[in-house]
Amino acid sequence: MTDTRLTALRTLLDGRWAPVRDEVREQMGRFRPVEAGLSTEEYRARVLDLMGELAATKRPHAGFAPEYGGEGDIGGTVVSFQTLGYGDLSLLVKAGVQWGLFGGAVQVLGTSRHHDEYLRAIMDGELLGCFAMTETGHGSDVQNLRTTATYDPATREFVVDTPEPGARKDYIGNAARDGKMAVVFAQLVTGGDTRGADARSAGASHGVHAFLVPIRDDAGNAMPGITISDCGEKGGLNGVDNGRLVFDHVRVPREALLNRFADVAEDGTYSSSIENENRRFFTMLGTLVRGRISVAGGAGSAAQKALALAIRYGATRRQFADPTTGEEVALLDYRAHQRKLLPALATTYALHLAQEDLVAEMHRIQAPGAVVTDEKAQRDLEYRAAGLKAVATWHATATIQACREACGGAGYLAENLLPQLKADSDVFTTFEGDNTVLLQLLAKGLLSEYGRRVAALGPLGTARFASGVAVEAFAEKTGLTKRRLRAVDPRSPQAQARLIHDRAEHLLASLARRLRPASRTGTDQFDIVNDAQDHLLHASRAHVDTVVYDAIATAVDTVSDAPTRELLAQVRDLHALSVIEADRAWFLEHGRLTVAESRAVSAAVNDLCASLRPHARLLVDAFAIPESWLDCPMLRTP
Amino acid sequence: MTDTRLTALRTLLDGRWAPVRDEVREQMGRFRPVEAGLSTEEYRARVLDLMGELAATKRPHAGFAPEYGGEGDIGGTVVSFQTLGYGDLSLLVKAGVQWGLFGGAVQVLGTSRHHDEYLRAIMDGELLGCFAMTETGHGSDVQNLRTTATYDPATREFVVDTPEPGARKDYIGNAARDGKMAVVFAQLVTGGDTRGADARSAGASHGVHAFLVPIRDDAGNAMPGITISDCGEKGGLNGVDNGRLVFDHVRVPREALLNRFADVAEDGTYSSSIENENRRFFTMLGTLVRGRISVAGGAGSAAQKALALAIRYGATRRQFADPTTGEEVALLDYRAHQRKLLPALATTYALHLAQEDLVAEMHRIQAPGAVVTDEKAQRDLEYRAAGLKAVATWHATATIQACREACGGAGYLAENLLPQLKADSDVFTTFEGDNTVLLQLLAKGLLSEYGRRVAALGPLGTARFASGVAVEAFAEKTGLTKRRLRAVDPRSPQAQARLIHDRAEHLLASLARRLRPASRTGTDQFDIVNDAQDHLLHASRAHVDTVVYDAIATAVDTVSDAPTRELLAQVRDLHALSVIEADRAWFLEHGRLTVAESRAVSAAVNDLCASLRPHARLLVDAFAIPESWLDCPMLRTP
Question: What value of ipTM does the predicted structure carry?
Fold first, then answer.
C-alpha cells in the first residue's frame, strides 16, 4: 500500500509541469546510463550520442516559438532541464549550451532572418553551437569584454577580432569538438580600423552585441582566421567539450549581427530601440535569465539525488552496537548523521518550491503572448534568479559533500555515483554568474528598490523613517529592543516568518545607511562599498532566505491532506529553524532572540531531526528520481 | 632582496625537521609531475614508477629501525610524508600504504621473525603490501570486524576466512594491482571449526589480531582461496589501486601472526602480555596512530598548495573597475575575496604549527630509545591525533573548495591543479578514521580525563565544584555572569586564549553533567548520549581549537625578528578571531561576549583581512612549495 503522503508530496513537488517531469523521467529511464571509466574523448562522443537521443524526443523543441515547431513552453523547458539533472550532468550541461544558451540567444536576440535560417536545425540538434561570451580576462564583468566586431561598410561585413590574449573566449561549451557555429559577444565598433590591432581607438564603440559566427566547416576543421583549442580535462562535466576561440580579423556578413535590439545599416549607421548603452546591454543580458534559472534547478536535482543516495544508505548501513540492546545501529539513527542530512533535506524541499515559483514567474513574463511587459517585473525576476541561483548552487555543493562523507568509503567510489555528482555540479557555483557576484547584483537591486521606497515616503516620511531607524539602532545597542518583548515560539510559522523577514529588512536598511556616504562625490566609493561587502552579501542571503521560506510556508497551506500537511509543516520548521540557528548570533546581537530562545531554536532543530527521521525515506522518495539512476552497489550490498 | 620575514617564517614553519623537508623538496623537484589525461591503468603504472623513484631516494627507509637500515626517525618520516603532499596525492597515499600502514604494522605489531624476513624488502619497495583492516560492513567499528583467523593445531596453521559478504575487505590500497602481501586484521579464534562457515561459534575468540597473508604470487595471480577485485574509479586518488579481498579458508602458517602483543603456541594455547581483550585491541591500534597524524599533515600540505595557487591568482587577476580611478581591481583587493581566503590561510598556519607539535610529541613517545612509556602519554597522543586529523582534514576540504571557487572557471580546469587537489584530498575526511567518529573518540577521552580530575578533588571538592558549576549555570541563564564584567579586547592574546579555553572547558563540564544519567544502569544510555551528540562534537572541536590556538600563540612568542613577530601576531589574531566569530552565538549565549564585543570581533576580522592582504603572497611563499609543483597556465596567462 502506497503511503498517501508519498502521492500528495509528489504531486506538490511536481507542481504545474508534472506532465513534463513525467515525460522526461520516462525518457531518461530509457537512456542507457553512461558507462564508468570512459576516456574524455569516449565520454564526449557518448554524450553527443545522448544529445541525438534527446533531440529525437522533441523535448528540447518545446521551449522554442510555435512558428518554428516549438510550443513556446518556457517554463516547461526549464522544468525538463531540471529533471535531466537526475541523470548525467554532462548531458544536462551540453543540452543547456545547445538549446538554452546558443538556441536561446538566437531566439531572443535574433530576428526572423536568423530564426528562419537556423532555429529548426538548432532544435533538431543538426546545427550544434556555442555561447561565446566569457573571455580569459573577463568573466563576471561581461560589459567590458575585449573582443571586437568592427563594421566594414566597404564589404558590408563585421570583422571579429581578439585584440589581446586576455580577450580569448574561454571555457566555451561545445567549442572544443562539436560546435559548428558560435554566438560571439563582442564590442560593436563602427567607423573603426578593421585591419589594425586596436579597432576601438579610431571608431565608435556601441557596447557588447552578439554575432553569429561559423567556427567549423562541415568536415570539422576550424574556419579560416579562427584558432580553436581545447580546455582539456576539467574537475567534472568531462562529457562536455569546453574550448577556447581566438579570432584573427574574421569576416562575417552584416546579417550575422543578432539584431533584435540594435542594427547597423549598410552604410555603417548604428541604430537601436534602446538609446542608453548601459540599459541596452542589460536588456540583452536580461533575456538570458533562463540559463541562470536552469542552473539553479539543475543544482536542486543534483542535491536531491545525493540525498536520496545518502539517506537510503544511512537507513540500511549499521555501525556500533546500542549498549543496551547489543543491536548495531543504523547510521541514520545517530543524531550527528541526522544533523548532516535532514536540515539539508528540509532546505532542499524549500528551494525546490522556491524554484517552482521562480519558473512560474519567468513563464508569466517570457512566454509567447505574455501580458507582462513592464521592466520592473523583468528586473525583479533577474534579481530573484541571481539570488536563488547563488543560494541553490552553494546548497547543492555543501549537501553533496555532506552526502559523500555520510557514505564514508563507499561514497568515494565512482560506482556509487556521489563522486561524479560532486565533481560535475561543483562548477555550478561559478558559472552562469559567479555566486558572489550574483549576490552583489541582487544587493544592488534591493538597494535601488529600498531607495525608491524611502523616496516615496516624501520629505516628512523620510525624516520620520530615519529617526525610527536611529531609535531602533540605539535600542539594539543598549539591548532594549521592543522585539525582545515578544516571546518567540520557534515552532510557530508566524514567529519564523517574522524572524526571517525582519532580519532581511534590517540588514538592508542598515546597509543602505552605511553606503549612503558612497553616493557623495569626492568620497572613496570603492573603499566604502568594499568595507561593507560582508554586510552586503549577508543582506542578499537574508533576502533569499525570505523568498525560500515563503515558498515552503505557502506550500504547507495549500496541502489538503492532513497527515501530509503535518509532515510538510515539520519540514518547513526544520528548514526555518536551521536557517535561524546558523545565523543565531545575528538574532542575538540584534535583540531578536533572547539567550533562552536561541537555545530553544537549537533544541528544536535536534527534536525535528529525531521526529523526521522515520520519514526521511518517504521524503526522498517523493522526488521520484527514476530508480535506474539511483541504482548502485552500495545500496545493493547487504 | 629577500624579505627577512620570508626567511624567518620559513624557518619557523620548517621547524625541527627542516633538513628533511628540504631534502624531500629537492627530490620532488626532480620527479616529473604526473601527466594529465592518463587512464586509470596508466596512472597507476606511473605512480608505481614514482614509488620506485621514491624508494631509491632511501627517504622512506628513515622511519624504520636502525637494525634494518633505517634511522628510527619517526618524526622525520611523518614530516617527509607531509612534504610529499605538495605533489601528487596518489603517490602520497600509495607511499603511506606501503611504508606507513603495511610496513608500519609489520614493524610495530611484528617481532624479529617478521622484521628479519620482510623489513628490508618492504623498505626497498620490493615487497609491496596492503593494510587489510576495513570491511564492507565494518569500517569505524574495527573491533567488530567479521573476518576470522582460526588456529588449526593439526597443521599449525591459521585459516583466514570471510564468513559473510559484509566481511569482505574493502577499499584496500595496493590490493587491486600491485600488492603481494597483506596485513589482514581478523578475529583470532582458537578451538574453532576451521572448515565450516562460522568458525567463532565453536571456538574461543580472542579479538582482532593482525596476520601476514600472501595475496599474489610472483606472476601477479591471486593466491588460491583469495578473490581479489578492483574498487574501480574513485572520486580521486586514481593512481592508487584500491581493491577488495575475499578469503575462502586460506591457510597461513602459525608464524604469520604478528605476535608482538599476543601469540598462539603450537598446541593452540593463546597468550598475551595484555590480559584484557579490550585493552589489548586498543594497544595494538594505538601503535598505528602514525597514519592518522600523517593524514592530518598531508591535508595541511594540500590546503597550503591550494592557498598558494588561489592567492597568487587573486593577486593578479582583475575584475571590475574602481569607480574613482577607473582601474580594474585585483580579486584579492575585494573584502569578500579576502574573507574567502585569508582566515583560511591564518588557520592553515595555526594547524601547521599544531601539527609540528603533535609530530614532536609522537617522536618523543615512539622513537627508538624513547623514555616515555606511560600509557597516559600514549593515550593523550591518540586523542590529540584524532582531533587534529578531523579538524585539519575538514579544514583542507573547505579551504580547497573555497580556493577552487575563488579561481572561477580557471579553478575548474585540471591544468590549474585545483580540481585534482580537491578530488584527491576529499577522502581524507573519512579514511584513517571517519572524522565524526574521531571527534567522538576524542570526547570520550576528554570525558574520562575530566572524570579523573573531578574525582581527584575528593568528596568535599566535588561538592564545591558542583555547586560552582550550578551557580555559573544559573548566572548564565539570567545573563549575569561574572565574565561579562571583563571587557574583551579581541586583539589581546590573553582575551583570545581565555575565550577559546573557557569555551572548551565549559562545553566539557556541561557535557559531563548532561551525560551523567547514562552511567546509571537501567537508563537508555543510547538515547542519552545520542541526544547530546551535537554537544559532544562541539566540545571536541572546541578542545581542538585550544590546541591549535596554543600552537600559534606559543610560536609568536618564539620569533625574535620583530617585523616577523608582528606579522605572525596578526595571523594569530585572524585565526583566533575567525574561530570565535564562527561560534560567536555560543559566546553570546553563555555571557562570554557582550553584543558590542561580538560585533567588535567581526569588525576585527574584516580589519585583519585588510591589513594582511599586502602580505598574503609572502605568507604563502613561506610554505616553500617547489615552484615546479605550482606551475600552471592560470598563473602564466596575463
Answer: 0.96
